[in-house]
Design a protein that fits this description.
Number of domains: 1
Helix content: over 70%
Number of helices: 4
Largest sheet: none
Radius of gyration: 17 Å
Structural class: mainly alpha
Order of helices and strands: HHHH
Distance between the termini: 54 Å
Shape: elongated
Strand content: under 5%
């Protein structure tokens, strides 16, 4: 039987994703939607990583989850920034490389 803390961490991960989805649906502009979509990889993967650490300890699934969480966080930040630059350039034509 798994600890209650694992269930709480997974519930928090799901709730954080739900808040992000509601933010995306309620956003008025594309930049606002990018802001909320970026938050999806900033919170939940690390909560899931914490749940895996509690459940598995220092075994291989923990290291896989750690790599996945860091990769999601890093790559989504880069992608969100790149998309925001393209959106601004198309809207205003004032972004230079």
């Amino acid at each position: 039987m798994r600890p209650l803390s694992v269930d709480i961490l997974l519930l928090l991960a799901v709730l954080s994703e739900l808040v992000c989805v509601l933010g995306i649906l309620a956003s008025a502009t594309t930049i606002d939607r990018l802001h909320y979509s970026g938050a999806t990889t900033a919170i939940a993967p690390f909560l899931i990583l914490a749940a895996i650490v509690v459940e598995q300890g220092d075994h291989n699934p923990t290291w896989n989850a750690a790599f996945d969480a860091v990769a999601l966080f890093t790559l989504n930040s880069i992608l969100t920034h790149s998309l925001a630059r393209v959106i601004r350039q198309r809207a205003h034509g004032d972004v230079e490389l």
